[in-house]
Amino acid sequence: MPTPLSPEALRRAPKVVLHDHLDGGLRPQTVIELAESSGHQGLPTTDPVELGNWFRDNANSGSLVRYLEGFAHTCGVMQDEAALVRVASEAAQDLAADGVVYAEIRYAPELFTEKGLSLEQAVEAVQEGFRQGEAASGNRIKVGTLLCAMRQNDGWQRIADLVVKYRDQGVVGFDIAGPELGFPADRELPAFEYLREQNAHFTIHAGEADGPESIWRAVQHCGAERLGHGVRIAEDIKDDQVGHLAAYVRDRRIALEMCPTSNIQTGAVASLAEHPIKRLADLGFRVTVNTDNRLMSDCSMSGEFGVVVDQFGFGWDDLHRFTVDAADALFLPLDERKALIENVINPGYADLKA
Ligand SMILES: O=c1[nH]cnc2c1ncn2[C@@H]1O[C@H](CO)[C@@H](O)[C@H]1O
Ligand SMILES: [Zn+2]
């Protein structure tokens, strides 16, 4: 008899998250304590439950630009090394407690330099925090880091340089985040050309607040190996007639880092029922389930699994497939991906299905 898909069983299932923002996943209590110790002003409340609700309600706007406003408070309290170590360590521990066995966590170092930290100091503090968090979780989780440049800011090359500089210390790739509409991914094409010359990896947020043309720029101009969200690739599919761009994304096995709750909050999809994850999975796309921002979306990996299970009737076979596909899309060497799948993921799902 397969184990029922209860919240507890979904927590126990081994999970891989490809898309989780460090500055979108703080514990409300940590935001409050760090605001107090750093002198950060303007939190709407100092009650942790109310603060959690405030972030969620603020993110429930239907607009990516509004959704991003809440990050002023999280980044506001992440301006010194001790805060970065703490937030990174807690992120690793919280994901591990939810049954995540491998996480790629991303953030933009340039957002942590308001009080004088250098980009390098920020990166090194976060790496220290991830190592501490892994150890505190009994090494049940491994964390790889993605460094983001902000689309609306110039100087993506500086961040690409950091990705290459720290590639042997746990930084596994690059991304661009922030407002998609009006800031195309090929705006600073040389940064991506440089990363390709360096044999470095990158994903790109695309197809969230803008349509297929934005995805096309990310894939065909920049060379994105994965897509952050990518939900609006569905606009290139009419009555199951798969357009050329969508076919390319599917046939190249470009992973779609989908984030169901966040996708509704930002208006990338009108409702959960209209989320294309099942349609795309049925058509053979490499779809994955992710959190995006655990604080702003008041969500977790096991919770997002529950959301798509309830809406689309997915079973253990589907969740197993999404997890293997996510593991295969990690910016990790082949042997490590294979070991993760064979030694951790497959046995975990075999138990649940038995
Ligand atoms: O879904 C998203 N789309 C685009 N940008 C995002 C999303 N979630 C967070 N960020 C942005 O990424 C920065 C670095 O972590 C965050 O500060 C936020 O501005
Ligand atoms: Zn994101």
Main sheet: strand order: 1-2-3-4
> Got a strand count?
10
Radius of gyration: 19 Å
Binned, the helix content reads 40-55%
InterPro entries: A_deaminase (IPR028893), A_deaminase_dom (IPR001365), Ado/ade_deaminase (IPR006330), Metal_Hydrolase (IPR032466)
Active site: 208 (proton donor)
GO biological process, one term: nucleotide metabolic process
Enzyme class: hydrolase
Question: What's a concise summary of this model?
Answer:
With 354 residues, the chain is an alpha/beta fold. 48% of the residues lie in helices and 14% in strands. The chain has one domain: Metal-dependent hydrolases (TIM Barrel, Alpha-Beta Barrel), CATH 3.20.20.
